[in-house]
Write a structure and sequence with these properties.
Layout lengths: L27 H9 L5 H7 L5 H8 L6 H7 L5 H9 L5 H7 L5 H8 L6 H8 L4 H8 L6 H8 L4 H10 L3 H7 L5 H7 L7 H8 L4 H10 L4 H8 L4 H9 L5 H6 L8 E5 L2 E5 L5 E4 L1
Antiparallel strand pairs: 1-2, 2-3
Helix pairs in contact: 1-3, 3-5, 5-7, 7-9, 8-10, 9-11, 11-13, 13-15, 15-17
Length: 284
């Protein structure tokens, strides 16, 4: 991962050495076709990396088999889309990724976040960046080093912490964020299927309505938690249960006897809200 082919390696597509060269000519469309051709020798790709057409350079930048001699200048290209293509390229070197994660253009920085070649050094830089969206994209990563995860747990942005809460697979991170004082962070946990039954029970008792409503919409709960939430003091929570695909039918049936001035009745797959004045709204 993150390794680039050198020009001395054999061309796996053409069977010829990478020192072979294909003549470059024609208009931009012809050169673009050459840049996209899997049999094009790597020496030709190096030449095409300095092509006057940004579309041609972008095509070279996007090739996982592009040699380091081609990607290196493209990581400094004046065209943003070319640099973004390099930032997404799984063959991009750590050195180029380090440059691109600090790029002045946000789209280039954000592209680095999805590159599988990123290592801990890149993720550490991302976690310390002033770009909140970049930190948020990092927070959605499946696996994070403990040092990086700890930094995101204490991130100044509730949005970043919420995204971490929603996507993390780390039990220690989930435990830490369960104590977060910001409701939207706990709401993120309420949508995370990696939470345990005990943690879901704690979220079912959360003092914030939005957290409990998000929980019943997203995750399966123990029967004891469901029985308690059927009588939840907030109609928003009971309505969320009535319309949730993960709440068992017998629990939704219990909501037809809801004591609120808006009763909740079910007719097949539809949920009908009957206001106190008798007016009906149908939700599917």
């Amino acid at each position: 991962m993150g390794k680039q082919q050198g020009v001395g390696a054999a061309d796996r597509h053409s069977g010829s050495g990478t020192t072979d060269h294909r003549p470059i000519g024609g208009d931009a469309d012809a050169r673009l076709a050459l840049a996209q051709d899997p049999t094009t020798p790597q020496m030709t790709l190096i030449d095409l990396a300095s092509d006057p057409s940004a579309a041609v350079r972008k095509a070279v930048a996007a090739r996982p088999d592009a040699p380091a001699q081609a990607l290196r200048p493209l990581a400094r290209d004046h065209d943003r889309q070319v640099r973004e293509a390099v930032a997404r390229n799984p063959s991009c070197s750590i050195g180029n990724l380090m440059r691109l994660v600090k790029d002045a253009d946000r789209w280039v920085r954000w592209a680095v976040a999805s590159n599988p070649a990123c290592d801990e050094s890149i993720r550490r830089v991302m976690s310390e960046a002033s770009d909140k969206e970049l930190r948020g994209l990092l927070a959605e990563s499946r696996e994070l080093e403990p040092e990086v995860a700890a930094r995101l747990i204490d991130d100044a942005s509730p949005e970043v912490r919420e995204r971490l809460a929603t996507h993390t697979h780390d039990p220690d991170v989930i435990t830490a964020l369960l104590a977060d004082r910001t409701a939207r962070v706990r709401k993120g946990l309420a949508r995370n299927p990696r939470t345990t039954a005990v943690q879901r029970s704690a979220l079912a008792a959360d003092p914030v309505v939005d957290v409990r409503a998000a929980l019943v919409r997203a995750l399966e709960l123990d029967e004891a938690d469901l029985e308690r939430l059927v009588d939840d003091r907030a109609v928003q929570v009971r309505l969320a249960m009535a319309t949730s695909e993960v709440v068992p039918p017998h629990v939704r049936e219990a909501l037809t006897r809801d004591p609120d001035d808006r009763t909740i009745a079910q007719h097949g797959s539809a949920v009908v809200l009957i206001a106190s004045g008798g007016r009906r709204r149908r939700r599917r």
